[in-house]
Amino acid sequence: MAGTYSRRSFLKQMGTLGATIALGGALSSCGSSGGSANTPSTGGSATPIASSPPSGGSASGTVNFFARGDEAIFKVFHRLRDEFQKREPNIQVQIEEVPGDFYQKFQLKLASGTPPDCLFECDCTITSSIRAGALEPLDSFIANDARFDKSDYLPIAWYTSEYEGKTYGLPYDGGSMAMFYNKDLFKQAGIPPLSPEEPITWDQLLEYGRKLTLDRNGKHPGEAGFDPRRIKQYAFDPQASWVPWLWVWGNGGEVITKDGKVPLDEPAAAEGLQFVADLGTKHYISPSPQFQQQGQISFLFEWDVAPFPKGKVRVSTGWYSPLSMTAAARNKEAAWKWISFCCSEEGQRIVAELGQSVPPLKKLANSQVFLNPKVPPEHKQVFLDQLDQSILRTPGDKMGKYFGGYVVEFRDIFNPAWDAVLRGDKQAADAMKEVRPKLENLLKTGKVS
């Protein structure tokens, strides 16, 4: 991507949208990694190897780096490599570019005994990799590197990388959820620009959504003759297929409780899920699997960001995906040099200047490197405000483990039931009642039933 808060990432969602929920900081590839519940086979070469801190000598040799993403993301890694090798001329970084389902390809690498030395992991797959013994704990490396003090980073930056008291990745890419919106279309519909500080309500979302959505005859939802099968312009893309949790918390519900319960079928949670599904199947202001189509694409417009809409409770969410070292890395010292450079202040300054994500380092996140209002969007402070600990939620935060430690498996169980709700085939309360026992069994036993 040209940047997670870029025009390209905004447009990529669904065509001409009056407003869209999209990631501000976290890469789109984090939400569509294609990971499955099949954890990596460690094979003979992926057996965990004890960590050893970097020595005082200079590292050298080749580092094989497994990079997921698209061309724009790969371009950032190539820029980082160019700068890194000026500083470490004795280390050659070989970047293997992996578009599409990176996790399946990573599993194949592990099974064949040819794992990379390090990789751009995903918040959605890292716990599966850890449990399989595929990743190297980095705590001793961090402790012996003066560049890394966890308190220098945003509190959420390390959350997905820490498991059972150990750290398996360095924060590289991520951020918070925010509402991207097309200011030109808002103006045409007579809607004032959104506040960068105060979120709109769910009722306002529906009100604005009806004004912004148009069928190919220029009709709005609710007007006589409106045709939901022939939409020219949707108002809102809630990214509901893979980030539905905000609507649960926003309605006062819970995803995972402290004791491992998954009360998604209880009224507050189910009603929140039903609300976001109804945006497509009932109110017709957002894309829905029920109507397989896309609006027209407009590439020239002014845009900005605003806080996530507020329901009964104001909430936000966010995450960071790390760079990790494999347990079977053949050149751990050189691999550490590479991933630590990318995640250090020096490397993250490059990443931030290229517009890839919200810097995980507080110093950079609160500097003009990131907040420069001359570089769209104007109100990037929104992304930082959405990371406020008083409103920030992540699935499993009450347990102290991201998704209870089973991200891929949780989604594999949840998604088919949720898809039925998004299609309008089932009500959220019924679908979640069916899936709840399976999710709770997963968190209790670690097994998919």
TrEMBL record:
Region (Disordered): 33-56
InterPro entries reported for this sequence: Bact_solute-bd_prot1, SBP, TAT_signal
PROSITE patterns found in the cross-reference section: PROKAR_LIPOPROTEIN (PS51257), TAT (PS51318)
Residues forming coiled coils: none
Protein name: Extracellular solute-binding protein family 1
Organism: Thermobaculum terrenum (strain ATCC BAA-798 / CCMEE 7001 / YNP1)
